[in-house]
Amino acid sequence: MKIAIFGTGYVGLVTGTCFADLGNNVVCVDIDKQKIKDLKKGKMPFYEPGLKELVVRNSKEKRLIFSTDAKDAIRKAEVIFICVGTPPKENGEANLQYVFDVAKTIGENINGYKVIVDKSTVPVGTAEKVERIIKSSQKSDHPFDVCSNPEFLREGAAVKDFQNPDRIVVGTSSERAKLILNQLYKSVIRTESPIMFTDPKTSEIIKYASNAMLATRISFMNELSHLCESTGADIKDLAKGMGLDRRIGSRFLQAGVGYGGSCFPKDVKALAQTLEQHGHPSNILRAVDYVNERQKKSLIPKLKKILPRLEGRKIVLWGLSFKPRTSDVREAPSLTIIEQLKNEYADVYAYDPEAMHEAKKYVKGVHYVDDAYEALKGAYALIIVTEWDQFREPDFELMKKLMRRKIIIDGRNIFNPDTVKAHGFEYAGIGR
């Protein structure tokens, strides 16, 4: 099948590449000329395990093409995916300008029946707006269908998630579009991971609701972590005990320093804003967001209980990305922690195996070090911000020799407190 993908960000690049790997002919379109040049050379705009290999292979086999020519891509495509960004406005509402710009371009260049798919995360009612824009922009009358097909790709496991999805959700009222998209996804449809057809509005809400529910679970456990700290309970055992209840399950019950990334913070705010625009209170979602922002600020007070004066003292962060196996630092807790440390006039050092290049775009005045242990020389404290696997079994004896003061603030509870203390460190975790 001939597919056009508009947007070569996280969703667009992963989706386009994986469709090409299934044997389709895919052109990924972007207005960023430098990004397109880099992609043609196999240079990735972000880190995602396994993606580069797929891009290089499918580009070499001519199934995957990168282009700035929107007109040509639209005219040749049978299915067009809109995968551009929907960044939040100041009030939390999703900014749909890029989606609408693509819709206008499609309308101006459509030359026959097309299935147009909103893959971007968009608020309820967007498919109708896209349809109106395409119709009003057409130079001649051509049939088309606009569908909603939200993505459920986890950063760090996106290729696997595309190839083995929990479910595929398609919102459309068109039988013709249903047949085409069912054919397109047939290679990844399984009995345990079905394709679900619904109306566009329900499909649009499903994505926001799913992310908001996961974010709620995280904030719920982070709220309880403070009770555990006050009473001497252990949040890890609490999560295990809750997770053994089959009605609850164990996923997303781990307390930590808060969630980040491009989805949860944005989607929680956007869904709250949508509820309020329709005259409904959004007390739960606003509380979820509030708890998360508060949690991001919870580590430095823990550090100051052990080390009251931070001015001029070297503090090291291990981890900058909002989660492991990605280079994404958008809304990452590390950004808040660094800002707090700078406000205390601490000397901030940081190491991350993949995210330092991205972090430099957001934060200045930080010493970025290429080796985790090298960063610890003369440090007063180490803060674990991202649970990269390489941090889970460190050389504690070497760390003791390198550090000036033996303090570990474990923002992800990756260490056993007794083990760390046995090595002579002062330790503070989350809810323990």
Distance between the termini: 54 Å
> Total helix count?
17
From the alpha carbons, calculate the radius of gyration and give it in angstroms.
23 Å
The gross shape turns out to be globular
- Arrangement of strands in the largest sheet: 3-2-1-4-5-6
Query: What's the main sheet like?
Result: 6 strands, parallel
Beta-strand portion reads 5-15%
The share of residues in helices is 40-55%
The helix/strand class is alpha/beta
CATH 4th-level superfamily of the largest domain:
NAD(P)-binding Rossmann-like Domain
Name of the CATH first level of the largest domain: Alpha Beta
Could you please describe the fold and organization of this structure?
- With 432 residues, this protein is an alpha/beta fold.
- It folds into three domains: 197 residues, NAD(P)-binding Rossmann-like Domain (Rossmann fold); 88 residues, N-(1-d-carboxylethyl)-l-norvaline Dehydrogenase, domain 2, CATH 1.10.1040; 132 residues, Rossmann fold (3-Layer(aba) Sandwich).
- 43% of the residues lie in helices and 14% in strands.
- It has 17 helices and 14 strands.
- Helix 9 packs across helix 12.
- It is globular, with a radius of gyration of 23 Å.
- The model has no long low-confidence stretch (mean pLDDT 97).
Q: Key terms for this structure?
A:
globular; Rossmann fold; 432 residues; alpha/beta; six-stranded parallel beta sheet; 17 helices; N-(1-d-carboxylethyl)-l-norvaline Dehydrogenase, domain 2; single chain
Write the topology of this structure.
Layout lengths: L1 E5 L3 H12 L3 E5 L3 H8 L10 H10 L3 E4 L2 H7 L2 E4 L14 H13 L4 E5 L7 H12 L6 E5 L9 H6 L4 E4 L3 H11 L9 E4 L1 H32 L3 H9 L20 H14 L5 H14 L2 H8 L7 E5 L14 H11 L3 E5 L4 H7 L4 E2 L12 E4 L11 H7 L4 E4 L6 H6 L3 E3 L4
Parallel strand pairs: 1-2, 1-4, 2-3, 4-5, 5-6, 7-8, 9-10, 9-12, 10-11, 12-13, 13-14
Helix pairs in contact: 1-3, 4-5, 5-6, 9-11, 9-12, 11-12
